[in-house]
């Protein structure tokens, strides 16, 4: 019986195979995922306490708090995602299969996007309850921002997580590098979410979506191009 | 005596690799003819692991040219990776996945037609058929080694790079490993074996390369 | 050339800078609206410009490094990031000092100021990354990637903040076009340029020396042992 020889597979196939692997690992270590969710919930709660009982204020700024909670959670999620690869040098094992480094980037970034989107969806009812907001312009709008914002945090986050997982003080380095970078995305997502929650009389929602979209195009492109330089020697 | 036109299994031409200040490999020139297996010896830090990683294309040389199975390891990296498999100190295993899942992931990346079947066959071949659905985290050192071998065999490589394969194995495990290496050789795979167990190495390999501080010296 | 850089450049920069600042602080007329306080512009604006020059050098060095690796480019990237950070910080501080009596605030969220602040944080992150990666080759590659991504971010930030701010009342910086002021500003800028160049060269040399101490001299290979009598390869029959 002759053993089948390895064949080159396309970028998409590799990405899906790796994404499947990551989702499988996340499922099998759900406790970790739960911890991240609870952390995000706790963050929302902390904002309520730190910023006082003035419900009008909380309601007005809910969009911002929401995205801050997601941002903080993303740092944890990204760190975990790469910690899994450091153990037993799994990243080498994957890389040498061979697996296209760009497929590794896409799978990690997409996996993280899915996680953040799901997290965001879970946080929405909590936000509604805690801050007393309503979804004025529609759930579709909110869903769109959730997806675009998660994409925007995940692309550069994946690049920086790959770097920091190999450096000293990795837990500090990732947020230090990531936070200034995602300011435009954070700004847009928070603003757009606020419009969804407070109403959008001047129809500005589209512009913010556009800005988020542009940010995504640029950083997914840049990440796609530069990620191989980070993991290959 | 092999015909002179046969492509060497590997050819190193003035190869050097630096980590920071330290030259792990220094101006190494060496060629291994096709069909010959190589014993790589030397103290810890002599450059054995670096050399194996270089051949596996996990690293690229700081200077010089590395050719594996007739291909430049830097220029044709992906093609080389398809033909070469590395058994390293690190197991490349995801602790949270089962043995079967670990192999299936690799089988998919290799583009094998039926990944799950290939994984099953691989597990059976190394005697892990009954532990197929256990997470790797529950495995002993010997079982991890066997699973790592299964990963290597899944690739059906033309060149197998084994970095201290006998490490952490009990005598029975060592015998099993010797058997697997002999099988590999019998099926035409070029084997490069780095080990401190000189006796086993000399039995299994026809050629020997002894490294000291990144250079080839007589043993 | 070496002598010029060591002695001539700092001397030239001090002379030109002194001239520029005399022109600005003593000779040019006070601003019609803001009065003498506005004179800090002759310090603040050149600092900002030079910070941007340094950051541009960093970006070019980073991109070029990824195309062709060289320790000189890496040293240039490190030097320019550090000098740029120092100049930018000084620029921010002088800006705050100017802002307080003029507009009553140390800080405002206008696009330029915000982008500059984010730039400073970005390059601080860049320098911290460099500290925390030990392997020189990886340090050079990874910091080049971070530098490029960070630089691309700046126009995006500028545009986002401009849009964000346009929804609120925006305070714009008044422009003065007095020709005497322009002259004083230009001279000061040139003085700052020479001073910056001098800092850059000094820091670049230091970085390059550090690199060379860390790795064997660039392109130097260990001596061939064959000459010393050892076999270069060995085969066992």
Task: Characterise the protein shown here.
The complex is a heterotrimer of chains A (233), B (219) and C (237). Chain A has one domain. Helix content of chain A is 81%, strand content 0%. Chain A is built from nine helices and no strands. In chain A, helix 6 packs antiparallel against helix 8. The model of chain A has no long low-confidence stretch (mean pLDDT 92). With 219 residues, chain B is an alpha/beta fold. In chain B, strands 6-7-8-3-9-10 form a six-stranded mixed sheet, with helices on both faces. In chain B, strands 2-1-4-5 form a four-stranded antiparallel sheet, with helices on one face. In chain B, helix 3 crosses helix 4 and helix 4 packs across helix 5. Chain B is globular, with a radius of gyration of 17 Å. Chain C is mostly helical and 237 residues long. Chain C has one domain. Chain C is 73% helix and 0% strand. Chain C is built from six helices and no strands. In chain C, helix 2 runs antiparallel to helix 3, helix 3 packs antiparallel against helix 6 and helix 4 runs antiparallel to helix 5. The longest helix of chain C is centred in the C-terminal third of the chain and has 36 residues. The C terminus of chain C is likely disordered. Chains A and B meet through helix 1 and helix 4 of A and helix 2 and helix 3 of B.
């Amino acid at each position: 019986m002759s053993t089948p020889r390895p064949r080159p597979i396309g970028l998409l196939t590799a990405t899906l195979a790796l994404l499947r692997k990551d989702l499988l690992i996340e499922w099998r270590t759900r406790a970790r995922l739960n911890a991240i969710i609870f952390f995000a919930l706790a963050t929302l709660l902390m904002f309520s306490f730190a910023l006082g009982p003035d419900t009008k204020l909380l309601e007005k700024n809910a969009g911002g708090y929401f995205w801050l909670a997601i941002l903080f959670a993303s740092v944890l999620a990204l760190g975990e995602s790469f910690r899994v690869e450091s153990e037993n040098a799994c990243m080498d094992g994957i890389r040498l299969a061979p697996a296209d480094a760009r497929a590794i980037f896409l799978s990690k970034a997409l996996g993280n996007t899915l996680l953040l989107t799901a997290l965001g969806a879970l946080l929405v009812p909590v936000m509604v309850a805690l801050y007393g907001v309503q979804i004025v312009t529609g759930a579709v709008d909110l869903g769109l921002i959730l997806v675009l914002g998660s994409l925007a945090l995940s692309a550069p986050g994946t690049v920086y997580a790959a770097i920091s997982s190999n450096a000293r003080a990795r837990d500090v380095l990732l947020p230090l590098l990531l936070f200034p970078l995602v300011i435009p995305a954070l700004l847009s997502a928070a603003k757009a979410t606020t419009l969804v929650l407070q109403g959008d009389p001047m129809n500005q929602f589209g512009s913010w979506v556009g800005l988020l979209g542009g940010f995504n195009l640029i950083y997914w492109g840049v990440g796609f191009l530069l990620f191989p330089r980070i993991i290959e020697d | 005596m092999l015909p002179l036109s046969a492509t060497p299994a590997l050819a190193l031409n003035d190869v050097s690799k630096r980590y920071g200040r330290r030259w792990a490999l220094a101006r190494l020139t060496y060629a291994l003819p096709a069909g010959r297996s190589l014993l790589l010896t030397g103290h810890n830090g002599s450059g054995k692991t670096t050399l194996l990683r270089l051949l596996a294309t996990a690293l690229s040389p700081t200077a010089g040219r590395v050719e594996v199975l007739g291909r430049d390891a830097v220029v044709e990296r992906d093609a080389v990776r398809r033909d070469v498999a590395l058994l390293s100190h690190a197991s490349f295993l995801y602790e949270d996945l089962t043995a079967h899942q670990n192999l299936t992931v690799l089988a998919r990346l290799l583009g094998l037609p039926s990944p799950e079947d290939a994984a099953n066959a691989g597990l059976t071949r190394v005697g892990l058929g009954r532990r197929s659905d256990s997470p790797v985290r529950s495995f002993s050192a010997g079982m991890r080694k066997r699973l790592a071998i299964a990963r290597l065999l899944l690739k059906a490589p033309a060149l197998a790079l084994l970095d201290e394969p006998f490490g952490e194995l009990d005598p029975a495990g060592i015998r099993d490993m010797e058997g697997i290496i002999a099988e590999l050789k019998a099926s035409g795979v070029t084997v490069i074996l780095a080990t401190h167990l000189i006796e086993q190495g000399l039995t299994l390999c026809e050629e020997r390369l002894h490294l000291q501080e990144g250079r080839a010296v007589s043993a | 050339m070496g002598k010029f850089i060591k002695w001539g450049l700092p001397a030239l920069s001090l002379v030109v800078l002194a001239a520029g600042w005399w022109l600005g602080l003593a000779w040019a007329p006070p601003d019609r609206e803001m009065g003498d306080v506005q004179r800090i512009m002759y310090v603040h604006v050149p600092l900002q410009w030079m910070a941007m020059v340094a950051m541009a050098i960093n970006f070019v060095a980073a991109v070029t490094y990824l195309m062709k690796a060289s320790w000189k480019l890496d040293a240039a990237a490190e030097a320019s990031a550090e000098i740029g950070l120092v100049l930018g910080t000084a620029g921010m501080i002088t800006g705050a000092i100017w802002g307080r009596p003029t507009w009553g605030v140390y800080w405002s969220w206008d696009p330029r100021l915000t982008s500059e602040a984010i730039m400073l944080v970005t390059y601080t992150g860049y320098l911290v990354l460099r500290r925390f990666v030990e392997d020189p080759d990886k340090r050079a590659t990874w910091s080049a990637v971070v530098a490029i991504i960070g630089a691309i971010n700046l126009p995006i930030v500028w545009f986002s903040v401009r849009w964000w701010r346009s929804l609120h009342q925006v305070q714009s910086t008044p422009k003065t076009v007095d020709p005497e002021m322009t002259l004083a500003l230009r001279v000061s800028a040139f003085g700052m340029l020479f001073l910056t160049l001098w800092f850059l060269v000094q820091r670049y040399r230091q970085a390059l020396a550090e690199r060379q101490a860390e790795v064997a001299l660039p392109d130097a290979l260990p001596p061939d042992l064959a000459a010393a009598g050892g076999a270069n390869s060995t085969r066992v029959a």
